[in-house]
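re: ur question from yesterday

yeah so i grabbed the chain u mentioned. its 75 aa long if i counted rite. heres the sequnce exactly as i have it in my notes:
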Amino acid sequence: MVEYPMTFDEFATKFQTEKDSRSYLYGLSFSKGFACPKCGNGKAWTVSDVLYECSRCGRQTSVTAGTIFQDTRSR
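ran it thru and got these structure tokens back, copy pasting raw so excuse formatting
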């Protein structure tokens, strides 16, 4: 079961940096490790802070896809 921050203080403690946020989103997206949504492969290369590329089929997948951060740009 995923524990979501319920108060502003919990949120501020849990997400002190952008890296904390990205790690949390990665855990939500790939709770059992990376799995390509297209081919199911378990290995990927890091393209950017939020983007991964499947080593088998080349599909790029972002941990922000399907979240409120989907169309945002990282610094």
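noticed a couple things. Residues 18-29 form the longest helix (12 residues). also The radius of gyration is 13 Å.
anyway ttyl
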